[in-house]
Amino acid sequence: MSGFFIDRVKSIKYAVKGFFLLLTTENSIITQTTIALVFTGMGLYFKIDRVDWALQFLAIGLVLSIESLNTAIEKVCDFVHPDYHQKIGFIKDIASGAVTFAVLTALAIALLIYAPYFLG
Ligand SMILES: Nc1ncnc2c1ncn2[C@@H]1O[C@H](COP(=O)(O)OP(=O)(O)OP(=O)(O)O)[C@@H](O)[C@H]1O
User: Fold this and answer.
1) Is residue 25 part of a domain?
2) Which of 91, 92, 96, 103 has most ligand 1 atoms within 8 Å of CB, for mutation?
C-alpha cells in the first residue's frame, strides 16, 4: 500500500518537473503563457465576472495542455525519425491541427468575453 503512495508522489514529482521544463525550455509554451498573462491582465482591467474568469482559465488551460501534448508528439517524431519523412510531416501537421482546434475555441471565448467592452 505504501508503495502505491510512493509511486503516486513520484508521478507528481515528474509531472511538476515536466511542467517547469515546458515553461522554461519550449518557445511555443512560453509564447502561449505570455498571451495567457496578457488575457489575465485584461480580465483584471475590465473586471470580468466569475463565470468569465472560469471560461478564460478553461480556455488558457485547454490551449496550454494541447500545445504541450503537441510539443511531446514533435519530440517523439524527431526522436524516432530525425530525417525527413512524409508520414512524420503528416503526424506533426495533425498534431498542430489539434492546437488550432483549441486556439479557435479560445478565440471564440475571448470574443464572447471582450467584444462587448470594445463594441460598447
Ligand atoms: N521530419 C520531418 N519530415 C517531414 N516534415 C517535417 C519534418 N519535421 C517537420 N516537418 C514539417 O514541418 C512542420 C513544422 O515542424 P516543426 O517540428 O518544426 O514544428 P513547429 O510547428 O515549428 O514547432 P516548434 O516551433 O514548437 O518547434 C511540420 O508540421 C511538418 O509539416
Assistant:
1) no
2) 92
Q: How many domains does one find in the chain?
A: 1
Asked if residue 108 is part of any domain, the answer here is yes
Reported as a single tens digit per residue, the pLDDT across 52-110 is 999 999 999 999 999 999 999 999 999 999 999 999 999 999 999 999 999 999 999 99
Q: For 47, left (φ over 0), alpha (ψ -120 to 50), or beta?
A: left
Domain range enclosing 42: 36-119
What number of other Cβ atoms are within 10 A of residue 60's Cβ? 19
- Ligand 1 centroid–CA 82 distance in Å is 11
Q: What is the Å distance from ligand 1's center to 89 Cα?
A: 6
Complex ipTM, two decimals? 0.91
Is residue 2, in this structure, part of any structural domain at all?
A: no
Tens digit of pLDDT for each residue in 23-47?
999 999 999 999 999 999 999 999 9
Considering the domain boundaries, does residue 53 fall inside one? yes
Which domain CATH number covers 105? 1.10.287.3610
